[in-house]
């Protein structure tokens, strides 16, 4: 790993590349490009004061907690995040073992260590396992429709509920036992909503559901925090590669934007919220899909082609939040890893929509017990969907009070001490994120992900007549005159053939652009490398496409 103070050779001599967004996709793209003779120093514009995007580790809450990405999903040799984490020495020995790498979990969350009913009674773990096996066997069946000519129902949720209804018809228990079984199944639906990042499995498309690829390996965490990974990538970039607190307002593309200092003209101009303007040959957009959805009408000028805009609208993007509760003393057993709460008045077969303020907490799937650190004892709750977004509108005190009541009710202990503090993520209200991660929604398909990933212009047609484009940046009419010092030294660079540059003006990366690994950190990283490779390939077959510099 090279030091953060490393200077790139011959900065400014080569096509100018701007990366919008300093998450792992953007950092991965910059990391792969920087220092390459063809692209000596790309620059990253990050809207916030920190790098990492949806990777965010908090070290001031008793121990290390992950407000964003939590696990390496499928930590095995085919996972680039796992490979980098191993290279940087960020994992435990047991996580690196061959046994862990070969384990096949099917992408399913493990069963709870203890299960409480909302009445305060313990739920038989054998019954929970029985319902879990039923749920996950049916969920596995939904992947079999990938190559079917048509789906029996539009969504994963509808298929699961149809099959559960058939099973219920054969149950011979009394009504109370049936209700408990359905309540347990409802808890598994809530778990899958968190996994998929959706409000309801009824919004997740059935036909393409099997396209998501689960890598082998027992999911693992970073003992020192997931952010250690992005910190290492940042440290290997040349100094000042990333500009912080630089939210982008509009990406002007397919134009002719002169720069007075260098005398060059560029096809793309990135306009920031603070008035700064940066011309470039190529821009890699890595902002979250939720942000694109909200700013679709203003973020690109000219507007995106209709089919790409429609893909952005159709692909799903939901919210999955975490709530951390810190306790003076644990009320759970030492070997407890996962506490489940089963709300006995819920069922996946009933379309009941109570007021959010009255029942938001029923979407909580329960609590993971985080590894203890000395006298620190922390539970981590997960909650998805509209209930998760409603939770963001409450104060810390309201959330702590409500979950204290939930735990007292579930454990049957009205004297259970309240948590000493609470910390939570709020990804939906985060202005540059607007949610957690993507899924293939009803009405969309994997082709929409590929459409989102397709660079602009789509072919050479839009680039014809570039030098006489209607888009000429007029400093007298806008903020160009107030532009800050350029990111690049003013060293003219004149390509012998500008046409390839015009075909890859705006590129797209991020987890929502990876067809088989969407919603994952490794999908985001691979997408950043993919777009870097596109630019490297512009230089012709003589340019070697290296792997990441570790």
> How big a fraction of the residues is strand?
15-25%
At the fourth level of CATH, the homologous superfamily of the largest domain is: FAD/NAD(P)-binding domain
CATH architect. name of the largest domain: 3-Layer(bba) Sandwich
Query: In the CATH scheme, what's the topology name of the largest domain?
Result: FAD/NAD(P)-binding domain
Count structural domains. 2
Chain-averaged pLDDT: 90
Computed Rg: 25 Å
Report, as a whole number of angstroms, the end-to-end distance. Answer: 6 Å
Structural class: alpha/beta
Could you explain the architecture of this structure?
The protein is α/β, with parallel strands linked by helices and 550 residues long. It has 2 domains: 17-54 and 227-316 and 436-537, FAD/NAD(P)-binding domain, CATH 3.50.50; 114-213 and 320-424, Alpha-Beta Complex (Polyamine Oxidase, Chain A, domain 2), CATH 3.90.660. It contains 16 helices and 21 strands. The protein has helices at 24-33, 80-87, 93-96, 98-102, 125-142, 156-168, 175-196, 227-235, 289-295, 306-314, 356-359, 385-392, 396-411, 446-453, 499-503, 521-537, and strands at 17-20, 43-45, 57-61, 63-66, 114-117, 242-243, 248-252, 257-258, 265-266, 268-272, 277-280, 282-285, 300-301, 316-318, 320-327, 338-342, 367-369, 377-384, 421-424, 437-439, 506-508. The strands form 6 sheets. The protein has a 6-stranded mixed β-sheet with strand order 5-16-17-18-15-19, with helices on both faces. A hairpin with a 1-residue loop joins β3 and β4 (63-66). The termini are close together.
């Amino acid at each position: 790993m090279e030091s953060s103070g490393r200077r790139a050779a011959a900065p400014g001599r080569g096509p100018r590349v701007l990366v919008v967004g300093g998450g792992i996709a953007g950092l991965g793209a910059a990391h792969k490009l920087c220092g390459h003779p063809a692209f000596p120093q790309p620059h990253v514009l990050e809207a916030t004061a920190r790098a990492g995007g949806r990777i965010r580790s908090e070290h001031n809450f008793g121990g290390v907690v992950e407000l964003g990405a939590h696990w390496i999903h499928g930590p095995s040799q085919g996972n680039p995040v796992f490979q980098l984490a191993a290279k940087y020495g960020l994992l435990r020995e047991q996580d690196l073992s061959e046994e862990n790498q070969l384990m096949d979990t099917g992408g399913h969350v493990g069963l709870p260590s203890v299960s409480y009913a909302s009445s305060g009674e313990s739920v038989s773990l054998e019954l929970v396992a029985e319902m879990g096996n039923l749920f996950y066997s049916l969920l596995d069946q939904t992947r079999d429709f990938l190559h079917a000519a048509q789906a029996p129902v539009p969504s994963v949720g509808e298929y699961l509920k149809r099959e559960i209804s058939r099973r219920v018809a054969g149950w011979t228990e009394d009504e109370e036992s049936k209700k408990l079984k359905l309540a347990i199944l409802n808890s598994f639906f809530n778990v899958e909503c968190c996994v998929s990042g959706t409000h309801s499995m009824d919004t997740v498309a059935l036909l393409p559901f099997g396209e998501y690829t689960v890598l082998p390996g027992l999911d693992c965490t970073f003992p020192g925090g997931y952010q250690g990974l992005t910190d290492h990538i940042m440290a290997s970039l040349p100094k000042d590669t990333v500009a912080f607190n630089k939210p982008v307002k509009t990406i002007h593309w397919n134009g002719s934007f002169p720069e007075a200092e260098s005398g060059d003209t560029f096809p793309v101009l990135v306009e920031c919220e603070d008035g700064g303007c940066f011309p470039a040959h190529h821009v890699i957009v890595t902002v979250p899909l939720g942000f694109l959805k909200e700013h679709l009408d203003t973020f690109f000028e000219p507007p995106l082609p209709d089919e790409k805009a429609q893909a952005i609208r159709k692909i799903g993007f939901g919210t999955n939040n975490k709530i951390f509760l810190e306790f003076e003393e644990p009320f759970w057993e030492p070997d407890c890893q996962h506490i489940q709460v089963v709300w006995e008045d819920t069922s996946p077969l009933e379309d009941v929509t109570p007021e959010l303020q009255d029942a938001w907490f029923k979407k909580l799937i329960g609590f993971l017990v985080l590894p203890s650190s000395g006298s620190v004892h922390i539970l981590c709750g997960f909650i998805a969907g509209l209930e998760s977004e409603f939770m963001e509108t409450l104060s810390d005190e309201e959330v702590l009070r409500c979950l204290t009541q939930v735990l007292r009710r579930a454990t049957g202990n009205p004297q259970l001490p309240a948590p000493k503090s609470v910390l939570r993520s709020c990804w939906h209200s985060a202005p540059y994120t607007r949610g957690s991660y993507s899924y293939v929604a009803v009405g969309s398909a994997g082709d929409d992900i590929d459409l989102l990933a397709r660079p602009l212009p789509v072919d050479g047609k839009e680039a014809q007549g570039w030098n006489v484009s209607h888009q000429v940046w007029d400093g007298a009419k806008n903020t160009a005159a107030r532009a800050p010092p350029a990111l690049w030294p003013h060293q003219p660079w004149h390509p012998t053939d500008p046409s390839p540059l015009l075909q890859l003006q705006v590129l797209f990366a991020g987890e929502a652009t990876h067809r088989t690994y969407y919603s994952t950190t490794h999908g985001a990283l691979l997408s950043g490398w993919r777009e870097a490779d596109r630019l490297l390939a512009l230089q012709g077959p003589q340019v070697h496409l290296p792997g990441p510099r570790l």
